[in-house]
Amino acid sequence: MNMKYFNDIYNHANDIENNELYLVDETGRVVSHGNEEKIGQAGAVPEQVYHPALTGDKFASEERNGKQIMSYRINSLDWILVNEIPVSLFIRDILTLRLIVVTMFIFSLASAAILSRYWIRRITQPLNSLTTVVRRMGQGNLGLTLELDLKNELGILIAQFNKMSRNIQELIEQKESIQEEKRTIEIGALQSQINPHFFYNTLNTIKWMAIMVKADNIVESITTLGDYLQPMFKQGMLCTIREEIDYIENYIKIMNYRMAGGVKLQKHISPQVMDYQFLRFLLQPLVENAITHGLKNRNGGTVTITATEYKNEIVWTISDNGEGMSETKLQEERESLIHGSSSEHSAEKKGIGLYNTNRRIQLHFGDRYGIVIHSEQQAGTELKFTIPKVQQT
Question: For the Histidine kinase domain, which residue ranges apply (predicted)?
Fold first, then answer.
C-alpha cells in the first residue's frame, strides 16, 4: 500500500483547523494516521457502521465529545475512513455573526436612546420654558415673552404666545390710560364748587331778598340758575335722558336772559327713550357750541335736539340754523375732534369742548362711537352721534 498517498491526503485535510482524518480496520484499530503515534490505537467509529445488516459502502455521522465524527465504510477493504472535526468549527461563524448582530443591536439601542433623549429634550425643554412663563403670568407677571427661535410647530406656538402676551400688556396699559383719561374728563365735565351747599344757600338768600323787594325777574333768574346748578351737586356720571333735557331747558333759559330771549329750543324726542340712562352734562357743550358759534352773529336762532331709536341704539342730532362753516373750517373742526389739537383753546371758549365730549362718548361706549359734524355756510351746523341704549339699574 502506498502510504505516501494517504499522507498527502492527511496533510491536505490538516489544513482545516483541528481536523483529524484516519483509517481504521474492522476491529476499530487505527491502521493509517497522519500522526504515526496514533496507529494501533482505537478510533472513534459510529456504532451504526458495524451493523451486520448493512452491506456496501455506508456513510455515518454522529456528535461525540464536542466533535462531529463522520465515517465512510469501505467494504472491499473492510476499512473505515474516519474524519473528526470539532463542532466549534461549524458554529464559529455563527457565533461570530451572532456577536456582530448582538453588538449592532446594542449599538442601535444605545444610539436610539441617545437620539430619543436628544429629541425629547429638544421638544420638552421649550415646552417646560413655556409652562414656566405661563405659570409666572398666572401669578401676575404680565408682559413676559419667551425668546426661542424655533422653525417648527412649537416655534409657531411660542410666537403666538409672545404676541398674546404683548397684546394683554398693551390692553392693560390702554385700559389704565382710558381710566385715567375718564377721571380727568369727568372732573372737567362735572366741575362743582368747593362748597356747593354754601353756594346754593347763598343763591336762595339772594332769591328771598329779591322776593322781598318784589323783583320778579331777578327771582326767576336766580330760580332758573339754581335749577341749572343743582345737577352739578349730584353724585354719579349717569342720569336719565329726562333729567338731561330738563338741564338743557334751564340752560336755554339762562342763555335767553343774556341774549334777550333770542334762542329757541325745539325737541323731537320719543317719550319711550326718556327713562334710558345718559351721560350727565353730555348735551350741554354741544348746545353751547351751537349758540355761541352758530348763532353768535344772528342775535338768536333755533337749536333743535332730535333723538330717535334705531335697534339697540339712540341716534342724537343737535342742529342750529346759524351761519354754518366753510369747508376749510369744517375740516379743521373734524380734525380737532380726532386729535384734540385745539382742545385747550376750545375749553376756554366752549366749556369742556367738543373734543372732550367726543372722548367721553368713546371712553364710555367704545371707539366706534363719536360725534360727526356736518355744516354748510348760511345753512347751519349739525352735530350727530349714536350711543347704545342703557336701561336704568
Answer: 279-391
